[in-house]
TetR/AcrR family transcriptional regulator (Thalassorhabdomicrobium marinisediminis), 203 residues
Amino acid sequence: MTSPHPRQRGSRELWLDAAYNTLVTDGIEAVKVMGLAKRLNLSRTGFYWFFADLSDLHLALIDRWESRNTGTLVARCDRPAPTICEALFNVMDCWLDPSLFDARLDLAIRNWARVDGALQARLDDADARRIAALTRMFARHGFTPEQAQVRSLTVIYTQIGYISMQVEESRPERLARVQHYVEMFAGMAPAPEDVRRFMARHL
């Protein structure tokens, strides 16, 4: 087989980004080597310089999701904070900054997992890691184990609901509601200075 010119091969990230864009817009069924090659205007054989096969590409997509979404969320939960409200605002950053948490990718993975048992197992594990991180966060701020677990479940289920229902609201609407979500999750109103710091990060 003749080796394609590097420009015809593209790069690993280029193929992965194209697969990501296809996944979040059209679902996993549309992620095919030929379709990606046409989308990129590259040689189909170039794909195999970077991935052994389509399953290898699938694993790379899943790894990207786990790192970007679960990894970032766990890190945010573990970030030191003087109060539970400040800790929750650190988590809420994820819901407002796509570079921290990619909601479209999370939805695509959840839809994909419905037809892929192995992925469903990884999704279940990721959700368990997210819940455990939130539970630890609440526990550090004095909540009992039972309270910490239920509050962490409330945070996760609320966000999964947002993602699954594809809720549409303007950014100002979402920002205005965050402090009230924090109050509901924490059981206390956030201090005005905490609200101002959070808003300053997103305005």
